[in-house]
Amino acid sequence: MFSLVKDKHEHAWAIMKIENNKEVVLKEQHGKLRSRTDLVENEEVFDDMKKKVEELQGPCYILFDFAYKQNSGTVKDKPIFIYWCDDDCVGVKEKMTYAATNSELKKQCNGFETFEFHDKADFCFQKISEDLKAKDRQ
């Protein structure tokens, strides 16, 4: 799944969850973006993905083909890996299971920028865009 988002751009996003306390499974995915440099479309697709995350409830892992505007004004796409775990809605055991698996999944994220969110206010397109822009080489 990682290469389908990062290298082949086959999916705009993919959401994965742990089932049976042991297996990471694909729960939802979205097809290709019409344009990898259309910021409006990318933000709309991001918002749609967040709605799916809310529907699925609980922690999850997300791969997303993210587009943002660099300081130079150029639009760049960057694959991102998000670990989402709302601390207010998850028990300690589930948090620990997801956190441990997160460490293992990050090892497969070569070429992905990684993010971890525990608060709905932080889990937003603008925050990720600003963070990526700040990390760009000047």
TrEMBL record:
Keyword Nuclease: no
Record keywords: Actin-binding
Gene Ontology BP annotations: actin filament depolymerization
Family from the record: Belongs to the actin-binding proteins ADF family.
Protein name: Cofilin/actin-depolymerizing factor-like 2
MF terms (GO), sorted A to Z: actin binding
Pfam family, one: Cofilin_ADF
Ranges for domain ADF-H: 1-133
GO cellular component: actin cytoskeleton
Residue stretches spanning the membrane: none
SMART domains hit by this protein: ADF (SM00102)
InterPro entries: ADF-H, ADF-H/Gelsolin-like_dom_sf, ADF/Cofilin
